[in-house]
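can u do me a favor
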C-alpha cells in the first residue's frame, strides 16, 4: 500500500495540494498489522500514539460498570484513530479490530508539527472531528428517542455510506461484516432484538439479506424509517485557511 488513506478521505471534502498530500503521507510511513479481535489501545491505559486505519474495520468502545460494552463508533480505512487520546494521559476508549487490519501509528509531536506547517490541514482535522461528533450526537439522540427499527436502519445506512467512501463500486449492496451482537452493542439492543429488526426491515421490503451481504432495496423508505441524515454532505468549508503552497 502507498499514498495516504487519510488524504483520500479529506480529498473527498476539499482539493488537497501536492504539498498537503505529502504531509499526510508522512503520517502513514510506518505500518502495523493488527489481527482480528486484537486490542490496539485499551481504555484507561496510558497512550502516546495516534493511528490512521489503512485497511480493515475497527471499533471504539467503552465498558460500563455492569460489564456490558457500548460501541461508540465503527472505524473505516482513512479514519484517524485515537484523536481524543491526544489530549488525555489515559485513553478514554478502547480501539479493537473487527477484521485483520493495517494501521499507521504516529506520535503527537508529528501531528503538532504538521498543524504548524499546514494550517488548512489542522482545520480539516477539526472539520473531520466535528463530523464525527455530530454523527455520534445523532446516534445518542437515536438511542434515547427512536425505535429499535430506526436505530438498526440508521446503522445500515451509515455503514453503506462509510464503506462507499473507500469502495466506489458499492451502490446498494455491501458486506455487513458485523455480528448481530456488535450491532446490538452499537444500538443498545440485544442480539435477539437486532435479529428481529433485521427480519422486519426485510419483510417490509426495505432491505434484502443473503450470504452476509445487505442490499438497500428501498433506500428512501429506509431513510424515512431511520430519520437518517448523512453528515458527510451539506458542509460549508468556505472559511478554511488557504492551502500551503
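np, heres the sequence
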Amino acid at each position: 500500500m502507498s499514498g495516504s488513506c487519510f488524504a483520500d478521505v479529506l480529498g473527498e471534502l476539499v482539493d488537497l495540494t501536492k504539498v498537503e498530500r505529502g504531509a499526510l503521507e508522512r503520517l502513514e510511513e510506518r505500518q502495523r498489522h493488527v489481527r482480528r479481535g486484537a486490542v490496539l489501545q485499551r481504555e484507561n491505559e496510558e497512550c502516546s500514539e495516534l493511528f490512521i486505519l489503512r485497511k480493515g474495520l475497527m471499533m471504539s468502545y467503552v465498558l460500563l460498570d455492569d460489564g456490558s460494552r457500548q460501541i461508540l463508533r465503527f472505524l473505516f480505512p482513512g479514519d484517524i484513530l485515537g484523536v481524543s487520546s491526544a489530549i488525555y494521559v489515559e485513553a478514554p476508549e478502547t480501539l479493537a479490530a473487527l477484521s485483520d487490519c493495517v494501521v499507521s501509528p504516529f506520535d503527537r509531536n508529528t501531528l503538532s508539527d504538521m498543524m504548524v506547517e499546514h494550517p488548512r490541514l489542522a482545520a480539516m482535522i477539526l472539520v473531520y472531528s466535528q463530523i464525527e461528533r455530530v454523527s455520534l450526537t445523532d446516534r445518542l439522540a437515536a438511542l434515547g428517542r427512536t425505535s429499535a427499527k430506526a436505530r438498526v436502519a440508521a446503522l445500515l445506512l451509515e455503514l453503506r455510506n462509510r464503506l462507499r467512501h473507500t469502495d466506489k463500486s458499492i451502490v446498494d449492496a455491501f458486506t455487513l461484516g458485523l455480528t448481530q451482537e456488535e450491532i446490538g452493542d452499537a444500538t443498545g439492543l440485544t442480539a435477539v432484538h437486532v435479529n428481529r429488526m433485521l427480519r422486519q426491515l426485510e419483510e417490509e421490503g426495505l432491505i434484502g439479506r443473503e450470504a452476509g451481504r445487505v442490499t438497500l432495496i428501498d433506500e428512501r423508505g429506509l431513510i424515512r424509517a431511520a430519520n437518517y441524515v448523512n453528515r458527510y454532505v451539506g458542509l460549508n468549508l468556505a472559511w478554511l485557511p488557504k492551502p500551503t503552497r
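The helical segments are 5-10, 18-27, 108-117, 119-145, 148-166, 180-187, 191-203, 219-226. hope that helps!!
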